[in-house]
Specification:
about 350 residues, alpha/beta, 7-stranded mixed β-sheet, 3-stranded antiparallel β-sheet, globular
Length: about 350
């Protein structure tokens, strides 16, 4: 039997030179890449990173096309026993629709650097292509990320914890559809599409779909394609897919400025807490990770409630399926640690992006 492979796609969008710029998303990718390489046995040859840092090559920029191509390749290449991981750090948004005779519907999406949305429908499509015996964990450090895997079982959900003020400066990792529409309307190819949907009274999903299609043609979310062009999606069973969300669907995720709380570097509160927890405790289940992260954020005075959506079995499985992990060879591509190893040294630097 061939050895299982661990594969990851890590995305950090700071949206530089825009009015919705963030600070900590690229740092999130750096710290997450270190964590999964050192503590969870991911080979750097199977980790693909996308960041919008100055000087990044076009093929490594976190556009929708690049991200989706990497995710689809990861899913296609996976075989039984493989562990797949997608980490997104950036803005999230929601899309609401209410048509005559239809019930209210709200969809969640993450926002690549080109604003060409990746919706929950796109992620459902990927999950349904998984081969039997593979696992796919999504960790999204973005606003409204609690609904990114549709119909998955909520293991740890909304909290009634009383909010307290944040202890440091932060910015919400969320961007409204209206803001995205304003940005798209300034692009020549989108003007006609925006004018059309305004004049016809279309829903917000139809509006932004038309605007995005005016720029990206058919390279848009399945959410925005004509019904005849959409791949038929079945309802997910509770055994397919696993989501650790940075917050509840109705909450925002914090982008923290550098301070003593984050060792002087800007970070997403959720990603920073996940890395902090997993560098300190070994062998945690998915449910235990979320509980420990919630505890850590509450202790730091951060009003944000990460959630877990998965089957009962996946909730109790070790994070990133480390149950059968063996110590990896000590070569230049891998730096896995045994469960009882010392804490990973700080201060490591690695040039990104890393080729997938």
């Amino acid at each position: 039997m061939s050895k299982a492979t661990k594969r990851a796609v890590l995305v950090g969008c700071n949206y530089p030179n825009t009015k919705f710029r963030l600070q900590g998303c690229i740092n999130d990718v750096l710290s997450m890449e270190d964590l999964i390489s050192n503590e969870f046995g991911f080979d750097q040859d199977h980790v693909k990173c996308f960041i919008d840092e100055q000087g990044t090559s076009p093929e490594d920029f976190p556009t929708r096309a690049n991200i989706m191509a990497a995710l689809e390749e990861m899913v296609e290449d996976a075989v039984a026993g493989d562990v797949l991981f997608f980490h997104f750090s950036g803005h999230g948004t929601t899309l609401s629709t209410l048509k005559p005779g239809e019930s209210y519907k709200e969809e969640e999406a993450i926002v690549p650097c080109d604003l060409n949305l990746i919706t929950d429908m796109d992620l459902r499509y990927l999950i349904q292509k998984l081969k039997p015996g593979t696992s796919f964990t999504i960790l999204s450090d973005s606003c409204h990320s609690g609904g990114l895997i549709d119909k998955d079982k909520e293991q740890i959900g909304p909290s009634r914890m009383k909010g307290i003020p944040f202890p440091v400066y932060y910015k919400a990792r969320g961007i409204s559809v209206g803001t995205i529409m304003n940005c798209l309307s300034s692009v020549t190819d989108a003007v006609t599409g925006v004018a059309h949907v305004v004049n016809t009274g279309s829903t917000i999903v139809e509006s932004i779909g038309s605007a995005l299609s005016g720029i990206f043609k058919k390279e848009v979310s399945r959410e925005f394609l004509h019904p005849n062009e959409q791949t038929k999606l079945k309802s997910l069973t509770e055994d397919e897919g696993l989501l650790l969300s940075g917050c509840q669907a109705n909450e925002t995720s914090a982008d923290l400025a550098g301070s003593e709380l984050t060792d002087g570097k800007a970070h997403g509160a959720f990603t920073y807490a996940v890395v902090k927890v997993l560098n300190g405790k070994k062998g945690l289940s998915n449910k235990e990770v979320v509980k420990e992260v919630r505890k850590y954020l509450e202790e730091q005075g951060i009003e944000q409630h990460p959630c877990l959506y998965s089957s009962d079995g996946n909730a109790d499985a070790p994070f990133l399926d480390t149950r059968d992990r063996k110590k990896a060879p000590a070569d230049k591509h891998r730096a896995a640690a045994a469960d009882d190893a010392d804490e990973t040294p700080n201060g490591r630097s690695r040039k990104l992006p890393i080729k997938y």
